[in-house]
Fold:
Amino acid sequence: MEWMAATAERRGDPRVLWPDVRSVIMLGINYGPDQDPLAILARRDRGAVSVYAQGDDYHEIIKPKLKRVGRWLIERAGGDIKVFVDTAAVMEKPLAAAAGLGWQGKHTNLVSRDYGSWLFLGAIFTTLDLPPDAPEPDHCGSCSACLDICPTAAFPEPYRLDARRCISYLTIEHKGPIPHEFRAAIGNRIYGCDDCLAACPWNKFAQLGREAKLAARAALDAPRLADLVRLDDAGFRALFAKTAVKRTGRDRFIRNALIAVGNSGDATLAPDAERLLDDASPLVRGAAVWALHRLLPRAEFAALAQHRQRDETDSGVTAEWRVAMDAAG
Structure:
C-alpha cells in the first residue's frame, strides 16, 4: 500500500490555523529509495542530494492527492476541509504518531513498522467530528543507531534535535555562511542529509516508493561537483526545475557545493573555486575561499590570498580570508 491514513486527536490545537476544525486526518506516502542513500558519501567528487529532493517537489505531488481525498470525504460525509503539506505551522509528526501512522523515533522523525523512515506526511483538517485512531507506541527500544551516525552530533539526547547543528538545516534553511565547525563534517552533502533516516533498523521493512514523480532523476542521483559549481542562476533553475532544491536558490546551493569541493581533496577542482572568487554573491565568494584553502598547497594559497583579498569589499568574505590564512599558518 502506497498511502497510509488515520485520524488523530488534535495536538497543538489546530484551531489556531482554522477555528472550525474538528478532526485531523493524517496521511503518509512512501518514498523509499532503490539504493543505499549512504553509498554516495564515499564518492567525494559527487554531490549527495537527500533522497526526498531527487525527484519532483513533493509539495506539488502530495497536495493534489490530499485534495482528491478531501473531495471524496465531502461527497460522502459533507463538511468542509483544508489541506496542508508542510505549508503551515502544522505539527505533522506528533499528529501522525497520534493517528497511529508510526512513532517519532529518537531522531525526531516518524518511523513506520511497514515503511521505515521514508515517509512524506500530509494533513486534512475537517469540520467533521471523526473518531480518532489509536496511537502507535514507540518501538525504538535501546537502539541508538540514528544518534550515533549523525556527523555533527545534532542530537544532544534521544528525541531532541539541535537544528543549529543539523546538516539538513545548514544546507537548506540556513541563509548565511555555514559555521566553520561543521564544514568538514558536511562532506559532500550538498542538499540535506539522510544519515539518521538511513541508519534506522526499521528500514529493513521499507518498501520501494511507487510514485514515479518522486523517483530520483538521473541528473540528481550522483551529480558531479565539477558540473554543479559551474551553474549560473539560469543553469541552476533549469537543472532543479520542479524540485524542492530550487527553493533554496542558486547562491546557497553553490555555497554548499563549494563546501563539498573543499572536502573532496581533488585539486583539479581548484580552478572552478578560484573562478568563483569573482562571483557576485559574497556567500559564494566566502565559500570559495574556504574550498581553496583546503585544496591548494600552503604557499600557493598564501600567494593567491595576497593578490585577491585586498580587492574584496565584503567584510564577511574578508573574514573568510583572514581565518583561512590563520589556518594555513
